[in-house]
Specification:
By secondary structure, this protein is of the alpha+beta class. Helices cover about 20% and strands about 30% of the residues. The chain has two helices and six strands; from the N terminus they run H-E-E-E-E-E-E-H. The strands form three sheets. The protein has a two-stranded antiparallel ribbon. It has a two-stranded antiparallel ribbon with strand order 3-6. Strands 4-5 form a two-stranded antiparallel sheet. Strand 1 and strand 2 form a beta hairpin. It comes from Methanolobus halotolerans.
């Protein structure tokens, strides 16, 4: 599998990971792996705290995930 972002730019790079949000294959240059909040929903990212309480970023449980750069940017807009 080849990196989606590289192929858009005419490059040929092998995929090293799959974005957990959109499923795109990404190379090392086009992935972000860091602690991210737990989200719910299929594609729309919503922070999940529980019992209808609005949550702050610090209150959200974290886990490392691999995301492509566009999905990571979308996620960061929500926290």
């Amino acid at each position: 599998m080849k990196c989606y972002e590289c192929s858009k730019n005419g490059k040929d790079s092998d995929t090293v990971a799959i974005c957990i949000v959109c499923g795109r294959g990404v190379c090392r240059d086009h992935l972000v792996r860091e602690d991210t909040p737990v989200w719910e929903g299929e594609y729309g990212i919503k922070l999940k705290c529980g019992m209808g309480v609005e949550c702050k970023y610090e209150d959200v449980q974290h886990m490392k995930k691999v995301l492509c750069i566009p999905c990571h940017e979308a996620l960061k807009e929500n926290y």
